[in-house]
Amino acid sequence: MPFLVLLLLLGGVIAAPGVLLDRSWKVGDKVQAAMERGEAPSNEIIEVSILRLKNARYRRGRPLPEWVQELDGKRISLWGYMAIGTLEGLSEFELVPESCECGKSKVNHFVQVTLDDDVTRFIPGRITLEGTFSCGEVEEDGFITSLYRLSTDQLP
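Now predict its structure.
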């Protein structure tokens, strides 16, 4: 029995990096080929992994990885959780990869979501949002306050 438990734990440790370092976008072959040519159709929605965004290499003042920059201005679909402590009635909140995370832990660990036609109401479970993605450093009072932003019409 202890051998089985050890084997299961070891399997989880070996499998986890592959999940966290997912290097693929979940898009159709046609869309993927167009993106590789730099011609992603504007009407296609690209599924993006929030875990992949979280694990993107970031250093202040340096460009974000090319694959992140290629998403700038594109329509994407992204799942995540509202950060703990999200206030209701606002037009912005932070989307984080884990339900137990608060926002602003590290600037590349959340997506700043702006609601164009809605206001926040706390949703405790996993949500999927579609909207226009933008990326790059936003600086306020000498601090980088966001790298990733998503503009969407409303909450699900």
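The chain has one domain: 2-152.
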